[in-house]
């Protein structure tokens, strides 16, 4: 039985005169991984911030199921370097304060228990991402929201981290909403892909999307080659406000079309 944790209905977010994202419709169910892809500035982080409640939609409705706990891994978290802070102390800042055994379990799950007493300021990019994931898991979330979890992680580490993320819905009985640019890895570890460019260009299961003739037209040759490289071909243009304007030779309009 499906359980909807998060639903966006016709959601838009406008900043001053500029519409950043518009007419967004999608859901995240318990047990599934939904991944947002799209070019820089396409509104992925804005949408994620609305998902976790840091931004309020200027139109439409964002609904959370009753008593849903959210674990959030932001795209960037800057810490004052003058503050001495170990991983243990950083994780203990979580609310409610976790018990020592919970810290160890979370760190063990992300393969970072050896970092417990290290300074957060000396961690590598990949290590820091794991600590942020552990911090999100400590909330025992129903919905885990990960904004570019692979930042600063090397290729081997990315595969490991994706394998880990792929197991989370089963192990934690949660839903995952994730932003990623790593299309080839995304496709291996995702139940649903949402392609965003100020609006939803297309969405669906990776297999059906990658075999869908309209997807192939959207992504061109790369789409037929197992999505090894990501590039965003667009069937229309955007004006300075992010609004869609007709392309001179429109190929296809996939706005808000579900491909699965
Ligand atoms: N608080 C804000 N005020 C003004 N403009 C904003 C704000 N937040 C985001 N924007 C603008 O909205 C657009 C979308 O930003 P957003 O960070 O959501 O994109 P993104 O798809 O996550 O990009 P990236 O892949 O580079 O992280 C950008 O042009 C950005 O400058």
From TrEMBL:
One biological process term from GO is: zinc ion transport
Q: Name one GO molecular function term.
A: ATP binding
Q: Which residues form a coiled coil?
A: none
Report the domain of life of the source organism.
Answer: Bacteria
Q: Which UniProt keywords apply?
A: ATP-binding, Cell membrane, Ion transport, Membrane, Nucleotide-binding, Translocase, Transport, Zinc, Zinc transport
Q: Does the keyword Nucleus apply?
A: no
Could you tell me what this protein is called?
Answer: Zinc transport system ATP-binding protein
Q: From which lineage does this chain's organism come? A: Bacteria, Pseudomonadati, Pseudomonadota, Gammaproteobacteria, Moraxellales
């Amino acid at each position: 039985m499906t359980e909807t944790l998060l639903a966006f209905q016709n959601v838009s977010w406008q900043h001053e005169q500029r519409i950043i994202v518009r007419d967004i419709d999608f859901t995240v169910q318990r047990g599934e991984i939904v991944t947002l892809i799209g070019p820089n500035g396409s509104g992925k982080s804005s949408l994620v911030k609305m998902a976790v409640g840091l931004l309020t939609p200027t139109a439409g409705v964002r609904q959370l199921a009753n008593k849903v706990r959210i674990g959030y891994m932001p795209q960037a978290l800057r810490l004052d370097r003058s503050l001495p802070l170990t991983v243990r102390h950083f994780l203990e800042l979580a609310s409610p304060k976790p018990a020592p055994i919970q810290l160890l379990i979370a760190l063990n799950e992300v393969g970072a228990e050896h970092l417990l007493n290290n300074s957060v300021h000396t961690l590598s990019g990949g290590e820091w991402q794991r600590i942020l994931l552990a911090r999100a898991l400590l909330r025992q979330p129903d919905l885990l929201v990960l904004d570019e979890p692979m930042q600063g992680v090397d290729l081997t580490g990315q595969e490991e981290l994706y394998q880990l993320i792929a197991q989370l819905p089963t192990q934690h009985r949660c839903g995952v909403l994730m932003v990623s640019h790593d299309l080839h890895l995304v496709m291996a570890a995702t139940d649903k892909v949402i392609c965003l460019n100020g609006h939803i260009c297309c969405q669906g299961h990776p297999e059906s999307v990658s075999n869908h003739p309209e997807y192939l037209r959207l992504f061109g040759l790369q789409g037929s080659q197992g999505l090894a490289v990501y590039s965003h071909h667009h069937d229309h243009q955007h004006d300075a406000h992010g609004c869609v304007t007709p392309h001179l030779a429109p190929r296809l309009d996939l706005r808000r079309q579900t491909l699965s």
